[in-house]
From TrEMBL:
The keyword ATP-binding applies. Residues 28-209 form the AAA+ ATPase domain. Involved in bacteriochlorophyll biosynthesis; introduces a magnesium ion into protoporphyrin IX to yield Mg-protoporphyrin IX. It catalyses: protoporphyrin IX + Mg(2+) + ATP + H2O = Mg-protoporphyrin IX + ADP + phosphate + 3 H(+). GO terms for molecular function: ATP binding; magnesium chelatase activity. Keywords: ATP-binding, Bacteriochlorophyll biosynthesis, Chlorophyll biosynthesis, Ligase, Nucleotide-binding, Photosynthesis. One of its GO terms (biological process) is bacteriochlorophyll biosynthetic process. InterPro entries: AAA+_ATPase (IPR003593), CHLI-like (IPR045006), ChlI/MoxR_AAA_lid (IPR041628), Mg_chelatase_ATPase-isu (IPR011775), Mg_chelatse_chII-like_cat_dom (IPR000523), P-loop_NTPase (IPR027417). It comes from Rhodopseudomonas palustris (strain DX-1). Its EC number is 6.6.1.1. It holds the Pfam family AAA_lid_2. NCBIfam families: BchI-ChlI (TIGR02030). This is Mg-protoporphyrin IX chelatase.
Length: 340
């Protein structure tokens, strides 16, 4: 297994790192889209997060990473194990699965062995990438270049939390709840609005524009490439500290409260910006709550809402032909109007 650059060693890109940590604390936030300059650390951050995440509990031998604590969501195979009293559990790494741009539909959703089904009457199913990503993260590099038929598949599964494969009268279904993480360069094309709306947060990634920051990025990357093992060892304490922080935030999350005043502020902000639907408010509330949990706060404050609002709302704005300001500028103006 290739050595991964440590998450805590990434220089700058604070908005992207915070969004990824929030998605790790509460998967209900809905994933992260990182758009920006090439070579600015987007893919590095996603792969670093995969190595950082605390392990999760799963049913031993389950091809879909079923959660032992949620038997009502077991796949068919695990339900059979329950009947025979053979359910064992283990701690495994949280899956972070790459979705290649050229992937076939069968590779993504899984494939049914029709020959075996017709000859022996058995449902032989080879799980795809969606099965592997269940309870974890599905990573799409260059998400704006993903083929339309794969986008449609992802939208269907993301909406239902279940993958259904039907071939020649045979049908297989299994749970597929995952967090979408996408990266891309806006110069290479825009993302389809339907898929864009499925990302909880959208962050802008820019090349560092200060001399000390650029020098430190090059220094750390060079040190890592010269001796990956030694570099990772040097950052192991910081990684362990961050891993504990994520675990503790997940434990605190259910106890973090959101006051009516905070909900009113979030709703006013979304109304001022004219966001479609109510997904903006929901995402803003969930992300602010996860941020509060990360920072040991017991309730969501205006500060949490202000800090996370650009990431949660900038990709949900309608185009305004009378206002040529960028989406981030529009969010900042609305924040100033609502929060003063």
């Amino acid at each position: 297994m290739a050595t991964v650059f440590p998450f805590s060693a990434i220089v700058g890109q604070d908005e992207m790192k915070l969004a990824l940590l929030i998605a790790a604390v509460d998967q209900k936030v809905g994933g992260v889209l990182a758009f920006g300059d090439r070579g600015a650390g987007k893919s590095t951050a996603v792969r670093a997060l995969a190595a950082l995440l605390p392990k999760m509990k799963t049913v031993v031998g389950c091809r879909y990473n079923c959660d032992p604590d949620q038997p009502e969501r077991y796949c068919e195979e695990c339900k059979e194990k329950v009947k025979h009293g053979k359910v064992k559990t283990a701690q495994v790494p949280v899956p972070v699965v790459d979705l290649p741009l050229g992937a076939t539909e069968d590779r993504v959703v899984g494939a049914l062995d029709l020959e075996r089904a017709l000859a022996k009457g058995e449902k032989a199913f080879e799980p795809g990438l969606l099965a592997r990503a269940h309870r974890g993260f599905l990573y799409i590099d260059e998400a704006n270049l993903l083929e339309d038929h794969l986008v449609d598949l992802l939208l269907d599964v993301a909406a239902s939390g279940e993958n259904v494969v039907e071939r020649e009268g045979l049908s297989i279904r299994h749970p597929a709840r995952f967090v979408l993480v996408g990266t891309g360069n806006p110069e290479e094309g825009e993302l389809r609005p339907q898929l864009l709306d499925r990302f909880g947060m959208s962050v802008e990634v820019k090349t560092p524009d200060t001399l000390p920051e650029r020098i430190e990025v090059v220094r750390r990357r060079d040190a890592f490439e010269n001796d990956p093992a030694a570099f990772v060892a040097d950052w192991s304490k910081e990684e362990a500290k961050l891993r504990r922080k994520i675990s503790q935030a997940k434990e605190r999350l259910p106890d973090v409260t959101v006051s009516d005043a905070a909900l009113e502020r979030a709703a006013k902000l979304c109304m001022t910006l004219g966001t479609d639907g109510l997904r903006g408010e929901l995402t803003l509330m969930r992300a602010a709550r996860a941020l509060a949990a990360l920072e040991h706060d017991k309730t969501v404050t205006d500060d949490h809402l202000k800090r996370i609002a650009p990431s949660a709302l900038r990709h949900r704005l309608r185009r305004n032909p009378l206002d040529d300001a960028g989406s981030s500028v529009r969010v900042d103006r609305a924040l100033a109007e609502i929060f003063g």
